[in-house]
Amino acid sequence: MKRYIVKFRTREQVPGSPPPSHIVSSALGALIAISAVTLLTQTTEIPFMMAPFGATCVLAFGVIDSPLAQPRNIIGGHLIAACIAVLCAYLLGNTWYSHAIGVSASIAAMQLTKTVHPPAGATPLVIIFAQPHWTFIFYPVLTGSLVIVIIALLFNNIFRTRRYPRYWR
Predict the structure, then answer these.
(1) CA 162 to chain centre
(2) Does residue 99 sit within a domain?
(3) What contacts 67, CB < 8 A, 6 or more positions away?
(4) By three-state DSSP, how is residue 2 classified?
(5) What are the residues whose beta carbons fall under 8 Å from the beta carbon of 132, sequence distance 6 or more?
(6) Is 68 among the domain residues?
(7) How does pLDDT run along the chain (169 residues), one tens digit per residue?
(8) Structural domain count, the chain
(9) Is 4 contained in some domain?
(10) What gap in Å lies between CA 156 and CA 151, rounded to an integer?
(11) Helical pair 20-44 and 143-156, crossing angle rounded to 10 deg
(12) Is residue 11 situated within a structural domain?
């Protein structure tokens, strides 16, 4: 019988907190973005808000240098996951396996298209559970993603210590 030896890496230190100015600006950017999406929902009575957008704001305002926070990832990731989710909901209904297939297929599709955005992994769960009309792809998913990205573009570039996005393609 073969023995396996597990080698442990040296422990790395937990990164420190970002500077207070970064924390405040991250929170303010998220406040503005979520307020805009919520107000858009309330004034038009069209749903533009979904829970994964909270996590999207963590990336778009808190860790803007991450590849996962770039516009193509935010918009593309949510859009791809939404299309897969609507298809799963239509073909398989609100079942345990439609949720599992929706999330796993979304991960694979985001990886293939280089649009990985972790909050979009929750998009299929929201859509399949709600069983909405196919227009859910456009609002809230596409429209809400665009609003967050536009605010992130405007807000993050106000500060000379922030540059967003790092890339488009």
Answers:
(1) 20
(2) yes
(3) 73, 116, 166
(4) coil
(5) 86, 89
(6) yes
(7) 566 666 666 777 888 899 999 999 999 999 999 999 999 999 998 888 999 999 999 999 999 999 999 999 999 999 999 999 999 999 999 999 999 999 999 999 999 999 999 999 999 999 999 998 899 999 899 999 999 999 999 999 998 888 999 887 7
(8) 1
(9) no
(10) 8
(11) 140
(12) no
DSSP secondary structure code for residue 160 in this structure: T
Kindly give the residue spans of alpha helices, DSSP state H, lying in 45-122: 52-57, 71-92, 96-112
Q: Taking a C-beta distance cutoff of 8 angstroms, is the pair 131, 89 a contact? A: yes
Domain range for 115 is 21-156
Q: Is the peptide bond before 132 cis (omega within 30 degrees of 0)?
A: no
Residue with tokens 């500060």: 159
pTM of the complete model: 0.89
User: For the stretch 64-103, what's the b/e string if a residue is b when 16 or more beta carbons lie within 10 angstroms of its beta carbon?
Assistant: beeebbbbbbbbbbbbbbbbbbbbbbeebeeeeebbebbb
